[in-house]
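Anyone able to model this chain together with uracil?
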Amino acid sequence: MASEDLSAHLEFFGELGVAGVRLEPDWRDRPAAEPPPSAAPAPAPPPQDLPPPAETLEAIRADLGNCTRCKLHGLGRRQIVFGVGNPDARLMFVGEAPGADEDLQGEPFVGRAGQLLTKIIEAIGLRRQDVYIANVIKCRPPNNRNPESDEVEQCERFLFRQIDTIRPTVIVALGKFAAQSLLRTTDPITRLRGREFRYRDAILMPTYHPAYLLRTPSAKREVWGDMKRVREILKGE
Ligand code: URA
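re: yes, here you go
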């Protein structure tokens, strides 16, 4: 690892509240200063012997086509940002909508927030290509405004189909918008985060959006707690 990579790595773990770097497998952990937030009763893990999914991600992408179902297609989008990663992922991340970098590159979470997300994924011993990453909304809203309800209504069905095809064990909803859309709630993210929800066949864990972490680095500690729980669930299978 180049020295600037190593110092970025250490800085990230330092901000996450990680004590230090040792070679033992648990080097990332230290006892939490506070007890973990109370979680809803742990849902049963999804059955292991599911029949093959009814459709493929390619078929869903083909159905989306050059989508004009909502007004976002005429509001400056360069391309549709469908999703990226392992179609058999056990861990899926769901964000809000593409930003400028994603709109340019055609891939979710490739800008600054995306680079932080990649570090978060790597912090639990996975690589970006091991997980699947998608957004509720597949086209960039102009000036990064919040998606509107008619846009969500047209677009979220494609996310649901992606989830039903991938059938992850854990879905991490990144930020208020993804968590509220998936859970059909208006509860604030501060109430949703730290809890586990049954969502279709998966366990859904809302956590803070990486863009929020860029503005509020102190919240990384809570996200790290959430990610350790994700790692535990994935290991427990
Ligand atoms: N923010 C999101 O919610 N999604 C992206 O793909 C990029 C930034």
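Confidence is low (pLDDT under 50) at residues 21-39, 41-46.
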